[in-house]
Amino acid sequence: MAAGMRSFAALRTTAIVLCLLVAAVAPARAKTPDAALAELLKEARAKVPEACSQPNVDRLIKILCAKKIRVGIRDYYPLFATRAGEKREGYEVDVALAIGRMLGVDVDFVRVNAATRIPLLAEDRIDLAIATMGHNTQRDGQARFIRPHYYRSETTVVGPRELPVASMLDLPGRTVCVTVGNGSNAELVSQGARLMLFDEAGVLPDRLKDQTCTLAAQDDSFFAKYFTDEDFNSRYFQKFGFAQVPWGMAVARQGSAELARALDLISQVFHRDGLFVDIGRLHSIRLGFLRQQQEVWRKPECNTDSGTSNPNCVLPPLNTALQPTSFAADVTGFEQWVEERTGVDVTLPMLKTAPAWSLFKDGVIYSLILIAGALAATLIFALMLGAAMGSRSFVLRWPARLLTIALQSSPIVLTLVIAATVAHSLFALSTETVLAAAIAALGLTNGANAGQAIGEAMWSLRAEGANAGLFGRALSRAATQIVAFLVNASKGTPIASFIGAPELLSSLTDITSFSSGRITTYTILLVFYTAVVMVVVWLCGKLRQVLENRQVAA
Amino acid sequence: MNALWENLSSDFLPRFLAGMAVNFEIAAIALIIGLALGLLLAAGRLAGGVFTAITVSIIALMRAAPTFVVMFFLLNAIPRDATLFGVPFALSGVMTVALSLVPYSAAYVADAGVDAIRHLRAGATHGALLFLPNVTRAFFVMVMSSSAGAAIGVTEGITVILRQAEQLANFNDRLVLFAIGIVLFGIPLQAGFMLMSLFQRRFGRSTVEEEASA
């Protein structure tokens, strides 16, 4: 019995020790976000009304004191936030109302747009912005974003259903209509797409309908409304999406720590309980991201009061920061210096970020290669076709004449497209192929005209009875025409951008698609090409002199 | 080939002809503005002194400015909400292409205008009338150059062909379509050049006779 008692005591002691050990080793059981939110709100409410008159209290206290939250919202963003008179509706509107209910306060809507949503937060004119705002690293320094994110958009490429485009791989050589400044433009450019720029997204569906654009790329949330239209939906299709951006509600960085924490927890609960999905379904927005997030926030590791700081649960902001050049600060200084002294707003985006600087340098180099190539090709084709057209042989003369007539009848844009189509059918798509096709097209077009002048000069010399050194004398006689078409070839080189040649016009269009300063940029482009053509004119003038002196000597 | 005809939409030809009409419209606008500006420049060039120096420089700059770059400059430099004397001044696609051709057109008219004025001063009326076929030549060059509008979404002839070509999967069909485009553009162009050559030859002969008798 005593032995039994001893063994029971030993067992009890062991059990107590084990329990103590488990209690010491195991982590404290995490609170649920609901409990953390309830506690946070309880503490905040306990400070009301005493804290209402105190300066520098957290905005959560101010909201509870005022019994209303001022929410910055957009007036017209179909499906997300629209306003007809006093009536507002949309996904973001209902999210704001649900937040108001959670906090136990009314919602006061304030109109914001893309330019005002962050400044209004900083100026304390709104407490919260729910305004289609993508969360990126650049904005992270300007506002405190609420996580988890309440939506995620992506850039979607839309085109006619019958058009065979399924991925980025199908984009090289195709023109895509985009809006200036869209963060995803750089990615389209890097995939070889040509961009047609527009100031506002609102025009893109119309440009698709009138066939100005074959493809258009824009935020999927923008196109969502159009795909609810039967006619649009039957004609167009979302080919693929890329550049996903999480959307975040945001509060001011200063004085909003408790409000931000409360909203983090509310957002977490809304995801876990499927409220975001329900509201999204009500407004016919795409639910894929919201459903995915619901799964995430139902996981035990995320469904805790510390879930919003767990990198396995929350999404990072989109990294949009472009690496600055080593001389970016000097360029900014120069821009300010010019503005202070002249009042002219000069912006030089091509010198300030590494990708833009690289594009700019490549553009200048390729432009010069293209001009040199076009001049050489024009001269070579002029000599060949001139000799053929001036020949007495019918077999040489007529094919050359027919080719010349065809080239003269084809607008240069069409000739370039034909050259690019043939080149792509023979060789793999590359910068070299496109440049070679452009040089061939420009050389053939201008060389055929100059060659015709040489041929005519040969026949006129024969008519005058000349026979010796006929070709050399014909060159001298046709000097003016040869020079004119050489100049024309150099002036035509920017058109090569139409088939995707990476010359300066292409490069600067790409740069302006993701940065500001369009006027300065295109002024630089105009000055560059005009100066280069003037140099070519001067050099060609020298060539003409040489050719004409030879004629005089002959 | 049969596949091409099947794939060519029934309204291709009407759309192409409407597109070509836009090419002619652009060239006409550019020529009218170019005539006004070019004749002023021609007068300035013959005025002598500092006027001549200034106009010669302006003409040289206009001659050197590439049409395609000017077009993109106009497209990007003029804000959509721009006003001129309080009147909205937003350029349509057609006007943007037309204005981009004005530097070429004005420089050409100025050169041809100077020759014509010199002939007139010398009493060679027929020589001065050569101004007309020269301007016609510039007009046809601009009809062809206006195809640059395809790059900014203007629905002109080449745009219609390129849109149609995008619907064709077969390489040979595309080439045939491009050939059709060349023929359709070539007919009015070659006819215009032939007419102009006839006119030029006739007046050229008269000019020689006129100068011989002077």
From TrEMBL, chain B:
Give GO cellular component annotations, separated by semicolons. Answer: membrane
* Segments passing through the bilayer: 20-43, 50-75, 87-110, 131-155, 175-196
Q: What is its main location?
A: membrane
Q: Which membrane topology describes this protein?
A: Multi-pass membrane protein
Its subcellular locations are:
Membrane
What InterPro entries does the annotation carry? MetI-like_sf
Q: Which UniProt keywords apply?
A: Membrane, Transmembrane, Transmembrane helix
Instruction: State the name under which the record lists this protein.
Output: ABC transmembrane type-1 domain-containing protein
Taxonomy of the source species = Bacteria, Pseudomonadati, Pseudomonadota, Alphaproteobacteria, Hyphomicrobiales
